Amino acid sequence: MEQWTKSESRIVRIEQTLARRQPGLVVVLENVHDPHNIGAILRSCDAVGVMRVMMLYTIEEPPKIGVTSASGAMKWVEFNRFRSVAACFDELHSEGFQILATKIEPKAASLYSYDLAKPTALVFGNEHRGISDEAASAADGLIYIPMMGMVESVNVSVAAAISLFEASRQRATKGMYDVPQLSPERLRLLADDWIKK
Amino acid sequence: MEQWTKSESRIVRIEQTLARRQPGLVVVLENVHDPHNIGAILRSCDAVGVMRVMMLYTIEEPPKIGVTSASGAMKWVEFNRFRSVAACFDELHSEGFQILATKIEPKAASLYSYDLAKPTALVFGNEHRGISDEAASAADGLIYIPMMGMVESVNVSVAAAISLFEASRQRATKGMYDVPQLSPERLRLLADDWIKK
Q1: Where does A54-183 have alpha helices with state H?
Q2: Chain A residue with minimum CA distance to B165
């Protein structure tokens, strides 16, 4: 009985989480190399309802993340692997996503100036090199996070959290967590899949 | 000449940063023990204009943070040490701060429901225990960061970044980075001090 109650509440939790998933918010990790950063980003993804992370590794090999603090969040996020910017961005564009890449440079606009409730892919770059020139020029927009301090940078996992939770704030304002964004068919298929995890 | 130009631009940078500092936004770290978390939090503090961090260590010893990635940000933030919640919160209350503590519990309200442009102290707790009961009950409000995923937590440095950048977003909307929040006297004293760093 105890066991039954526990698994019942797990099913309810899974259904509630799926009902809040945001298929219209995607993350692209371009050569991000530190597994702990990826782990923290995946936790933020799960927290705001991102269900799909594009692993775009053109230089670094995709790191093993199963051993980090991400292992909890990893289960609830789907991964797509890409070896070229073109393949990744073409797929996103064909699905109607705006692609926004985080980069500090004059052409970039403030995070808060973008409508992140639209189908949006947020691209985060390598810890040392940042976003590649190819990704920056193929993106639909460049984002910077306004900073007013002496030290003009934050860790990539912090930048991702700030961006993703701003997207979440905007989406919550529009009621996008109150109505399922997935079709009833997809909700049912995913629920069957998640219950087995 | 080269040298002169460089130090001139440094002075301009210092003056610009000080003109954006937010004396009305303070961070309290209650027994946060991981130096890397503290380092990341200090970078977020510097980035949004926090100039004062209260180190409230009632159980853990304040960790040494000089060796972490914080070393850049540390220089630009002032530290006050406290050994009791009462001493720390009394000082903040006497200066007119609302004290908001991050804690996931039924009485907490969403981060986005608070006016963070008011004089505000944000309290972040220990990585394992969270905020102490004493701090939670003495705070003026409890904050939670809305999360919609299967994993209901983020790292304390990520929670701090989300909260601090939301405060920054609200303050930017009110033009609080466009007009110096420090008196001309304090700006001058701090500029003299910072130029020597």
Answers
A1: 71-74, 85-94, 133-138, 156-173
A2: A162
CA–CA distance, A23 with A49 (Å, rounded to integer): 8
ipTM of the shown complex = 0.91
Determine, for residues A148 and B47 on separate chains, whether the beta-carbon distance falls below 8 Å.
yes
pLDDT band at B43 (very low <50, low <70, confident <90, very high): very high
For residue B37, what are its two tokens? 């978390």
B6: enclosing H helix or E strand: helix B2-20
Question: Which pLDDT belongs to residue B38?
Answer: 92
Alpha helices, DSSP H only, in chain A? 2-20, 35-48, 71-74, 85-94, 133-138, 156-173, 184-195
Q: What is the per-residue burial (b if ≥16 Cβ within 10 Å, else e) of B120-136?
A: bbbbbbbeeebbbeebb
> How near does any CA of chain A get to the CA of B45, in Å?
8
Look at residues A123, A119, A114 and name the one whose alpha carbon lies nearest to residue A54: A123
Distance from the B144 Cα atom to the nearest Cα atom in chain A, whole angstroms:
13
Strand (E) or helix (H) holding B42:
helix B35-48
> What stretch of H or E contains A81?
strand A78-82
